[in-house]
Amino acid sequence: xxxxxxxxxxxxxxxxxxxxxxxxxxxxxxxxxxxxxxxxxxxxxxxxxxxxxxxxxxxxxxxxxxxxxxxxxxxxxxxxxxxxxxxxxxxxxxxxxxxxxxxxxxxxxxxxxxxxxxxxxxxxxxxxxxxxxxxxxxxxxxxxxxxxxxxxxxxxxxxxxxxxxxxxxxxxxxxxxxxxxxxxxxxxxxxxxxxxxxxxxxxxxxxxxxxxxxxxxxxxxxxxxxxxxxxxxxxxxxxxxxxxxxxxxxxxxxxxxxxxxxxxxxxxxxxxxxxxxxxxxxxxxxxxxxxxxxxxxxxxxxxxxxxxxxxxxxxxxxxxxxxxxxxxxxxxxxxxxxxxxxxxxxxxxxxxxxxxxxxxx
Length: 361
Fold this sequence. Notes:
This protein is of the alpha/beta class. It is built from 13 helices and 9 strands. Mean pLDDT is about 90; it is low at about 90-100.
């Protein structure tokens, strides 16, 4: 018996981009869009009432659905033949309308519902937190296993200069995550400390998918640390002993706290940090913390991912680490061109450096 074909790669790509709230989506081609099975797949995966536990904002849903419907309409050349061949069931108003337009009745009904809902202004919507799901194309999962993804409630459209950076997942974290997916041995069965964890993307990746023994997600912002348990919950890690959140202020002594030993005396094998070098004023404090971590755990592996928004700041980071006795090794892991990305999706227009730091001597 012939097995049914799996989802088309174009449809998969569109779905993964949609769930990451990408602004510019790669819509499936016309030949696919006019097919009932394609429309039904899109409806069941993205737009039915039960499709998503954490759907995108209503404004985003409506914008994408309007464009999708318009593309379906324009994909049909011979309307008379299309309607006569249509397998859609003419059972109610929406179904009859869908047949006449060559569009899945569920998609039309969902658009009608969205149009009836009050929408926040674009300015208000930009400030609201949204559920964002990042598909992990770098992981190969066993057959019939749920697709690997990380879901975060975050301020997706926050700009890098606007407020608390820990409120969204940045490109350097996504890129470092792809690198770790290609080299899971770096964290497998290891105890990991993430500095400047923000939304917790990397910590969740290590704890849920890469087999880390334990992950300590740290940040200097109390508000960010308080939000991390929600990120853990969204990814099925609530109550898990594999990951925990803690406040850690760079430049402040790790020893001499209420605990007799920092982190309960537990070892740290790997330190990760993404987009934690963007502010030159905090680099000395960051490096001081790295020095203390190395003094406590001499064999620790430190991996930093940095988006080069400002070349001078990145050079400052390298200079301060060199003065502190660190050798900085640049990892050869180029960004996948944007047109070839299958998830997560991030810009390829600005360099992202992945560096390994090793204490010399």
